[in-house]
Every structure is written in structure tokens, then in C-alpha cells.
Please model this.
Amino acid sequence: MAECRTIDLPRYAVGTQHSLKVWRFGKAGARPKVYIQAGIHADELPANLAASKLLELLHKADGEGRIAGEIILVPVANPIGFNNVTLRAHNGRYHLPSGENYNRGFPDVSEAVLEAIDGRMAEGPAADLALVRGEVLKALETVTPSNEAQALRLELMKLAHDADIVLDLHTDSDAELHLYLDEDHWPEASDLAALLDAKVVMFARTSGGGPFEETIAWPYVRVREVYGADAIDLPLTVVLELRGEYDTDHGLARKDAVAALRFLTLRGAVSGKAKASKFTGMAGPFSATQTLRCPAAGILVFTAELGSTVKKGQVLAEIIDPMAGPGEAVAGQIRAAAKGRFFARSNQRLAWPGEVVGKVQCEKPLPERKGKLLYD
Model:
């Protein structure tokens, strides 16, 4: 029987109260445990819409007695950001009082976990994994948040800390469906990519800034680095970028929800039959992803089609200065660094120097893609 509970966040302003609504399907402690959340960036609404469709499908499966594992679904992972509306413009990416990106700065407890398990491992993969999971929760319970956004991040971490599978639903600005996941799960995770018809899969482990899916996995990554990859299983943590921010479409949302349910069936969290399909997109390291940055201020005009295969040196966009004289309007151009797929672009057409306005997935890592790969 499905259960729904409410988690009230600490009040950081007089007269306000934000809360999370958490749905649980199946028996607590059953395996596999799946955690799914939508919209930590609160203005990425197609993610929340897909989650609402998945909620309907999970209720139906639950009524049919088909929930075999434990499934936790948070359809609105950021109720704070739903209030971030200024002059009719919704900005759910940043916590307005602090300026923090909601999907950065999740608490990393990996070193505390390594210290706590020292001398207590080698009881076997199952027992060692249970030990690590328990110490992750204990470490999280010692974290003291200093603002409402940090309190939100902490609650989400506690919900997901011991999951076998974590699906974090997002959208890009204007994009084809794409995924981020740890390379250690490839090609096994191609079943999810194929069911969603993802066009690009990027391998990311430490892209920078402490995003949710990487931080959830990090204690387990560190344990495997110290004790060996066979010591414990690595949770499958995936960011699903469900196209663009304006793709609030019933058909697309239901299609994504059905694909997610089929994936959960393939992985044994839901009983029944589901047919796998073949992944036909591009998969490669995040270091092979070119982020397109504006070289000048002006009006952004894309000259390449979204989803197209582009060549090295091809002009993908131009920056137009409407105040320039005849023959001088093109203030700058953005070119492809290498052959690849132009899979994401900005829906903002006002350009300013340094702004990221698109992505191309190339075939090989790019020399300049080192250090922090994830922009804010």
C-alpha cells in the first residue's frame, strides 16, 4: 500500500513553511530500493510533470500488487524554488537569499564514513554495504544546515542515501533528452538510456560543485577506491535531462514515465515483463562535452539545428550587434571544437560574454575540458 508523508523544512522566514511530500511504494527495506526526485532546479517543470505521470503509474502498479522493491518518489524536490518568482519570471535554479545553486553543495560525508568503517570491513559484500549505508546516514545526521536550501539538500540526501538506484529528473534549457551517470555503470545502464531514447549519455563522477547524484554516490566511490571495486556495489545514480524547460507536454511526460516504469521492471523493483531496447545515441566522457560560450554581447542567433551532427570549425551561432554599422553586425561566432552532436542550447537569446549557450557532445575528450566541468 502506497504511503505519503510530509517532511516540514525548518522555517527561515516568519510566516513561511515549506515542506516535502514523499511517496513510498512497497515495503520499507525491500530491495532494490529506488529513489526518484524531480525538479531540484524548480523551474525545470517538465521533470515535475513526468514525475506526476510516474506517480499515477506507480499507484496503478501498487494496486495490482506489482511493487517488488521499495520505491520512493518526491515529485517536487524543491518547494522553496517554486516561490522564486520575480516580476512574472520564475528562477528556480538559485536560492535567492544565499545565491546558492540548489543542485550544488550537497553535504559530502565520504571522509567521515571512511573513518567510521576503518577496521570493520571484510565481512562480505552484503554486510560491508549495509555497514557503509548505516555510517552514511549517521554522518548525515551530524550535519547542521545554516539555511533553508541546505536543510532541503540534507533531507533529500537522507531519503536517497541507501538506494540502489537514484534517478534525478531535470531538464536543460532547450535540448534533446540526455543523461549523466558514472562510467562504471556503462554499458549496463544503456537499458535506461535506450528506453528513454536518450540521444547523449555523459559519464560524470567528479564534475565539480557537489551536485546531488554525484554526492549520493561519492561515499561508495571512495570506499571502492580504498577497499577495491569488489568490496561493495556502487549505486546507480543518474541525472535524466528530460529535454527543455518549455517541453511541458502530456504526451512526452507520459512517454518518459512509461519508460521509467519499464526500467524499474527490468531492474526488478516492479514485477512483470518489460522489453529492453537498443541504445542508438552517443555515449562518452563529460570531458568530451563542449560547452559553447558567447564571445561578445548582442543577440544570439543559432545557425545549426538542434540534434544535428556538426563538423569541427562549423559555425553554430552568431552574436549580432544591432547597433553596428553595415557589414559589422556580426560581433562574434561560436564554432564546434570537434565533430559531434549539437544536443543542447539556451532558450535565452540575449548574449553576454562568457555565458554558456549550448553543448556539443564530441567523440573524444577536449584538451580544455579539465578541472571543474560543471558550470553553475
Remarks:
- The chain has two domains: 3-280, 286-362.
